[in-house]
Amino acid sequence: xxxxxxxxxxxxxxxxxxxxxxxxxxxxxxxxxxxxxxxxxxxxxxxxxxxxxxxxxxxxxxxxxxxxxxxxxxxxxxxxxxxxxxxxxxxxxxxxxxxxxxxxxxxxxxxxxxxxxxxxxxxxxxxxxxxxxxxxxxxxxxxxxxxxxxxxxxxxxxxxxxxxxxxxxxxxxxxxxxxxxxxxxxxxxxxxxxxxxxxxxxxxxxxxxxxxxxxxxxxxxxxxxxxxxxxxxxxxxxxxxxxxxxxxxxxxxxxxxxxxxxxxxxxxxxxxxxxxxxxxxxxxxxxxxxxxxxxxxxxxxxxxxxxxxxxxxxxxxxxxxxxxxxxxxxxxxxxx
Amino acid sequence: xxxxxxxxxxxxxxxxxxxxxxxxxxxxxxxxxxxxxxxxxxxxxxxxxxxxxxxxxxxxxxxxxxxxxxxxxxxxxxxxxxxxxxxxxxxxxxxxxxxxxxxxxxxxxxxxxxxxxxxxxxxxxxxxxxxxxxxxxxxxxxxxxxxxxxxxxxxxxxxxxxxxxxxxxxxxxxxxxxxxxxxxxxxxxxxxxxxxxxxxxxxxxxxxxxxxxxxxxxxxxxxxxxxxxxxxxxxxxxxxxxxxxxxxxxxxxxxxxxxxxxxxxxxxxxxxxxxxxxxxxxxxxxxxxxxxxxxxxxxxxxxxxxxxxxxxxxxxxxxxxxxxxxxxxxxxxxxx
Lengths: 336, 336
Known about the structure:
The structure is a homodimer.
Chain A: E1 6-7, E2 13-22, H1 23-26, E3 36-38, H2 48-67, E4 76-81, H3 87-92, E5 100-102, H4 109-119, E6 127-133, H5 135-142, E7 158-159, E8 162-169, E9 176-181, E10 186-187, H6 196-215, E11 224-227, H7 231-244, E12 253-255, H8 256-259, E13 272-273, H9 275-292, E14 297-305, H10 309-313, E15 319-328
Parallel strand pairs in A: 2-3, 4-5, 4-6, 7-13, 11-12, 11-14
Antiparallel strand pairs in A: 1-9, 2-8, 6-8, 9-15, 10-15, 14-15
Helix pairs in contact in A: 6-7
């Protein structure tokens, strides 16, 4: 019998978080949540890849300064991003003298890192998790350089320029990670890189079904259920897939990619995507609301699409993955 | 005070391992250690990237069959590789219905995955770790397609076509992981992708110095010390760097990249490199010798170079990282 949902006996707290975004993210409906932004998206660096690294560096610095900690107070650093060989993380976090665990979970990295930080909180007293995406770095890698001006279909999502950083410790106060469920990779059958939401929806459905079945709960047992970046198309597919399993997602379900932009005013097609999408909404919106007790009981499901430009050119379908965290308010520990 | 070397209270066993290689690897001095090989390096697939995926799939199947286990007996799967977005792992392991944690540690992935599997062995009773590299997939991604026939300088290493798979459990018998030390990323200052050994040597030196200092041991306390893929150039730099810290690596130190090929007969310049280099030597040579009691006390340090082709083209230096495992014989548990 395979290990599924893991309940943390001493649920660690996500005791500090920070997010920094680009211009479009700051201009969106959640713009106020960012700790800082750069309207030029360059973050004072000469290449988009270096801009993304700088974004990670600044975001971790911000989380540490919010907590009043130095890098030497952090025992382990989990990080990853979307670009080739995760150089956004490798170069961005090079200045920090902290044992480094590189991850690749595409847009699921925030939940993957936080799950590992939580599961290892008995061995590493203080962990940091950082992830990012940058529109210009990701688009030229996975699709076309922005300067090419390619036309995007209605299902296309806009890679978010943002990073999220989190500090996790069982000894601190704050919103708790009470349960985690690691996802299984899933062949979506989708080959269209302009329809990432559809490619990840089956993985999100698999993880949520397993979670509700194992915990004997329903979506109505939670104040809020967030997926990381399915966008409008993917989240609508997720609702349909869960409905076939007799699980009804209500008004309490929202996708971070749908929330982060004003799709009409900002012309964002199916919404936001990228590691930085879910991560910044979690860091800047969900965790602060959990801290204040406005939310008590949240499921955060970060979804990732595990293809490369090469695998897509070779005609392979996009594998999806979704990792889940059950977060509870600082004001009400442990239960549902 | 940062958490450094972690001693596992219940040291888990690496109770099964497997390795599969390509033609050049089978023709090398350690050729007999491979469970299987394909002299064509294609593994019956139409592209090199798909060949690498197939290599991972077959190697995990082999490890499971050696242990007499099914995929449903495995609770968590750690995997990663060198190619863009780790598609070797994502596609190769898609058939396995096991919760999937994607890693990016370049050639340090074997030790990174085994360290996480060991540290989480109280939460996941059985973990699998898989990693690979493929010469043709890696060379066309990081340097030039093989067909181009570019000339290689003497410091260049040959990316190994091989995969290693490992099964870890605290409830099983076999060589134990008694201590782990996760590495810090390190700016080597090296910008030459044909001198990866030099780029990773500083990280290996940092990790080994920290380990010897914290555990108050010397290289002479171990039967064998292995680095993953520094090659001739990098391992010679490592010896020099440690000598400046008054640490002398003796005859018991060998680099897996130096051992895997006959450098003269096979014209392999500075030796082998790649995730599959250290992983296959660990799976096919070191662990079996630990199982038989021929080795009792081993340090395995897998080194990774965290650059991408893009970061190198942009003139950035190559960051290095090195994760360490202390392994003890099945016949002599726990101590040095």
